[in-house]
Each structure stands twice: as C-alpha cells, then as structure tokens.
Write a structure and sequence with these properties.
The chain is α/β, with parallel strands linked by helices. The chain has 19 helices and 26 strands. The structure holds 5-amino-5-deoxy-1-O-phosphono-D-mannitol. 5-amino-5-deoxy-1-O-phosphono-D-mannitol binds next to helix 10 and helix 17. Residues 300-303, 347-349, 352, 355, 398-400, 484, 488, 604-605 line the site of 5-amino-5-deoxy-1-O-phosphono-D-mannitol.
C-alpha cells in the first residue's frame, strides 16, 4: 500500500504534493518522492525514510519549482526501501514519471520484454516497467499510450503519470487500488485518499476500475479503455479530516477488518500462476524441503496463533511434524536443532524483539530459516534465509486483523507448496486446494456483508465479565485468537480452552449467564463439540456457536448461532476468524474503548 498525489494548476506543485503526502503517510512511510515539470524537463527528488527527509532535502518544495507534478509515499513491495526504489519511477530518457500504488504481477515478463527493446532498468520495482512501457508506446498521445500499457499489465494499480513532452496534463488510472480526482478552479488533483486534497477541494470524482482521468488546469476528462468519454457525477465530501483518514470508518481496526478480502487477494493471487504456486523469491529447493524432518514455528501473540493453525495445516498437507513456540520461550529452551530442521518465523512488523532473537538464535546454530513478514525490509525479513511477504499493507490498529489473515493465507500457500514438492498430496488435491484458496477473498466478503448480525450479538454481550472460547484442534487454535482479540481491545476477561480440557478444572468458573463461544467448524469433531456445549449449558452458560452453513443442528444446543461459508476444513480458520474479529470490535466499540490504541499495548513490541 502506498499513497499517491498529483497536481496541475497555477500554484507551485511541490508544497501541495508534500502536504498531501503527509496526509497519506498512514499508507506507507519508508520513502517518498516527487516529480515536477520545471519548464524544460521533469525534476525528480526522492529519498528513503520518512517524508520529512524529502521535505528537508527540497526545502519544503521550494527547490523543485513548477506547477505540474506527482508525489508518492511508499510501502515497499518490490525492492527494499531505498532512494532508487522510491517513486516516482522514470523511463529511460526521463520523459515519463510514474507513481504507483499496487502490484504489477507480470512485471518480470514485461521487464524482459523491455530489456530486449533496449530499455535500461535501474530499480528493483515493478513500477519502473510501467514508465518504460509508456515511453515505448508513446507516439505523441499519452492517453493512447496509457491504454496500451493497461492492456499489458496484470495486477492492481493506481497510477499518476506526467510526461515532459506533453507537460500540461496529469494522467491517472486505476484498477483494484483506490484513486480519486479532486476538482478545483483552475487546478485539479489526484490522490489515493481524500485527506490529501481536503485543504483544496471537497468535490471529487471516484474513479472506477479501468477509468483513465486526464487532468488539465481547467478540465478533467475521464475515459474508458476504448477511449470513449465516461460521464462522471462529482461527489461532495463533507467528512471531517480525521474521519477521512480512516476512509470514513470510525477506527482503523474497522477499516482493516473490511480490507481483508483485498489484502488476502493481494497476498495470494501473484503467487498462483497458471494453476501453480510460485513462491517468488524463496531459494529453498525441493531437495532441501525433502530433508526437513521437523518445522519449528516461532512467533508472538496473534502471529503465534497463526503458527498454531499452521501446525495442523503442515502436518495434514505436508506430513512434516511441527512444533509451535512462543518466541520468548523458544529462545531460552535450547530446542534440539540441526540441519534437518526448518525454523519458520511469523511476524507482522518484522521487528518483534523476541521473534527476532529466536530467529538469530536459529541462524547462529546454522539452521535454515524462513519468515512470513508484512513489513518489507524489516529486521526479521532481512535476517531470514528466505522471506515471504504478506501484502496486507500498513496495519495501524494495534489489534491485528488483516495481517493475521494474510499470514494464514501464506501458511496455506507454503504448506500446499511443500506438499506438492514432497508428493504428499495428489495432483487433484493440489488443484482443489488452490482453487479453494482462491475463493477465500469472496467468502470473507460474504461474512463481512453480514456484519450487522454480529453487531447485534455484541449488543447482547458487551457487558460480559468473563467470556470463554472453546474448540478442538483447528478450532482451539482459532479460540486463542478470538479470545486475544476480545481481551486486548475490550478489556473483558476471556480464556481460550481446548473444549475437552475444560472439565479438568476451568469449568468451575462457568456460572449462570457466562458466555461461552463454541467453535465447531470441523465435521469430524462436531458431535464432540455439541457434547461440550451441553456440558457448559448444564452449568448455566449462554452458548454462542460458530460453525459452517450445513451444520444447522448447532441450533438445537446453542442459544445463538453464527455461520460461515463452506470451505476445505483446513482453510476454515480464515473464515471463522472474521466474525470473532467483528465481535471483539463491536463489543469494544459499545464499551467506548480506545480501540486502535488499547491501554498498555504497542503495535510493535521491540523490547524483550
Ligand atoms: O509484529 P508481530 O506480528 O511480530 O507482533 C506479534 C504480536 O505482538 C501481535 O500479534 C500482537 O499479539 C497483536 N496486538 C495482536 O492483535
């Protein structure tokens, strides 16, 4: 996720661009840059680091004069944060400058094509290919060139483009990444999000996929890919600025919950090509995978809960024994490790101190390491032998949601990939698992579309004192996450228990009215879970059951029932977690808690 802005008017562009980027820094902040037409050519200034580094470098914009420009604040995907990889990316001759939010999935093939045509690339980004393609196709009409380029590229993009040969326009196009056009008087704007332009205008066009906006000082025309004009209705924005930064949501957590279908799709789809899993840059060979006799999964908090699910998934698909450890324990327990072991580390931030220390410990022992990380270029990503990034984008809320979901998605990709290399699944199973994985984003959307039902349930229980989450196997691992979500943001005491273990002590805490959330998504364990629900009901509990749509039988026991769509059992945690996140969110919201910044917590725990 990145932020883009663009300006054309009579004022100086750079100060507006810097101001707009500041409002978009929540979308990414590892580097920033601007390109401005200075009367003869495109002047580009960009720098690794926070926006203020760039701002100081160009003297608040004064060193980059001109009235047409584009700007970018980056969340690195392709290529680590660096000056060269920062946007704008420019074409070979410096004629085109491009800012991009999204991922060009087929950039390697396109890069090869452009290299064969003699273009020289300087960055590791996927975006540079767009600048080069534009220059290649440009024959005096930018719109024409843009249409040709978007027919070539696959993936997601919001693009802002300027051209030194035709400097009186800014061109913008989007597909699956947000982009708006701000409508001014004698000046017009583009931006990834509304706050970037609110100091200039409140009238905007929301671009739809494959719409191309051509901005001049006094006009904005929007075209489709057949070069026909699209008639757009301006939208007037009356939000206050802080609401707009959250995209209209009250909290980042709500926004991030709703972003999950996209985040999961962005994580999965570039890695599935022609029905095969392609794990971009991992160097592990099939031979190395075959040598592993054990996987240690090491992580903290919610990432550890992903590891708990991963244990079941790897053992079922790849038939490799898995141990899951909380990183702060792992580092001090002297685990038995040799060259037949893989240490798989999971972390959103890539900076969690205990996880990083455990990773380094494994590396010191010469053990092979692989990490699943969201923040590109973070310490854990840098220090691992291999890294697979989750493309969740920046996660602002302390309680993780979309990072958790994308970590799970990578676990499925990786386990199926291993299973294929090890021959532990058939070709039919391989294809079936892949297509089920591809169906995840739509199924998550289906659950999100019914969020009001969960809001209602939250209204019934937001005064609860204690809540228990119970489940078996995968559902137990899910219970851990459901319970953590609830306690960290609502401050309600909650415990997750293996359903069969409850009667060995903890059931004594169940009394009249205690809420027990029972997860029962696995068919083979469904009847066992029904028995466990009956046990707690007999002690006065109110039971909220969560299962798949076919298991309506749950209503015979549970007081309330929630359903998720059908899916291969191993992948159901990706669906079941969503109602649990929403439940925690609505309960905390009804209690008036500081949801995005819960007490005593930090987003990234960089101390031991
Ligand atoms: O950045 P990491 O994934 O390494 O963070 C690990 C935990 O601190 C994190 O998952 C934490 O438990 C979240 N607040 C849970 O919502």
């Amino acid at each position: 996720m990145c932020g883009i802005v663009g300006y054309i008017g009579e004022d100086q562009a750079a100060p507006f661009l810097l101001n707009g980027l500041e409002k978009l820094e929540y979308r990414g902040y590892d580097s920033a840059g601007v390109a401005v037409y200075n009367g003869t050519s495109l002047q580009v200034a960009k720098a690794k680091g926070r926006l203020k580094v760039l701002s100081e470098m160009i003297n608040g914009g004064r060193d980059v004069p001109g009235t047409v420009g584009i700007g970018h604040t980056r969340w690195a995907t392709h290529g680590k944060p660096s000056d060269i990889n920062s946007h704008p990316q420019v074409s070979d001759s410096g004629k085109f400058a491009v800012v991009h939010n999204g991922i060009i999935e087929n950039y390697l093939a396109l890069k090869d094509l452009m290299v064969k045509k003699g273009k020289v690339f300087v960055s590791e980004t996927d975006t540079e290919v767009v600048a080069q393609l534009l220059e290649y196709y440009y024959k005096g009409d930018i719109l024409e060139a843009v249409i040709k380029v978007i027919h070539k590229v696959e993936g997601s993009y919001a693009l802002g483009i300027i051209c030194a040969d035709d400097p009186d326009q800014v061109v913008a196009v989007r597909k699956d990444s947000p982009l708006i056009v701000g409508l001014g008087k004698g000046e017009n704007f583009i931006a990834s999000d509304i706050p970037a332009i609110l100091n200039k205008t409140r009238d905007i066009y929301r671009l739809n996929d494959n719409e191309i906006a051509v901005l001049k000082r006094d006009s904005v025309l929007v075209y489709n890919t057949d070069k026909e004009i699209v008639t757009k209705e301006p939208v007037h924005i009356d939000w206050d600025v802080s609401a707009a930064e959250k995209g209209g949501y009250q909290h980042f957590m709500a926004k991030e919950i709703m972003e999950q279908p996209k985040a999961v799709r962005d994580t999965i789809s570039p890695r599935i090509q022609d029905g095969k899993i392609v794990l971009d840059k991992i160097t592990l060979t099939a031979e190395q995978i075959k040598r592993f006799k054990k996987i240690y999964i090491v992580a903290c908090g919610s990432a550890y809960h992903v590891g708990m699910i991963a244990k079941y998934v790897f053992e079922k698909f790849a038939r490799i024994p898995v141990e899951v450890d909380v990183a702060s324990e792992f580092r001090y327990r002297q685990p038995i490790m040799d060259d037949k072991v893989l240490v798989l580390v999971i972390s959103q931030s890539g900076e969690t101190a205990d996880t990083l220390a455990a990773l380094r410990e494994a590396k010191n022992l010469g053990v092979r390491t692989l990490s699943i990380v969201n923040v590109v270029g973070s310490s854990i990503a840098n220090d691992s032998d291999d890294v697979i990034y989750t493309w969740a984008g920046p996660e602002i809320a302390v309680a993780t949601t979309k990072a958790y979901s994308t970590q799970l998605a990578v676990v499925y990709l990786l386990a199926i990939y291993f299973a294929d290399k090890l021959g532990t699944i058939t070709a039919e199973e391989y294809s079936s698992y892949i297509s089920q994985l591809q169906s995840l984003p739509d199924k998550i959307s289906e659950i999100l579309a019914n969020k009001e039902q969960i809001q209602y349930l939250a209204s019934q229980f937001f005064n609860a004192k204690d809540v228990f989450f119970i489940g078996r196997n995968l559902d137990y691992a899910m219970s851990l996450e459901g319970s953590l979500k609830l306690k960290e943001i609502s401050y309600i005491h909650s415990e997750a228990y293996a359903a069969g273990e409850l009667k060995h002590g903890t059931i004594s805490l169940v009394e009249d009215g205690t809420l027990v959330i029972a997860l029962a998504t696995q068919d083979a364990l469904f009847d066992k879970m029904i028995s466990n629900m009956k046990e707690v009901k007999a002690r006065g509990a109110v039971v909220l059951g969560l299962t798949t749509k076919q298991n309506k039988k749950i209503e015979q026991v549970a007081d309330y029932a929630l359903y998720v769509p059908e899916l291969c059992e191993m992948m159901l945690p990706s669906l079941a977690v969503v109602p649990l996140q929403l439940f925690a969110y609505y309960v905390a919201s009804m209690k008036g808690c500081d949801i995005d910044k819960p007490r005593n917590l930090a987003k990234s725990v960089t101390v031991e």
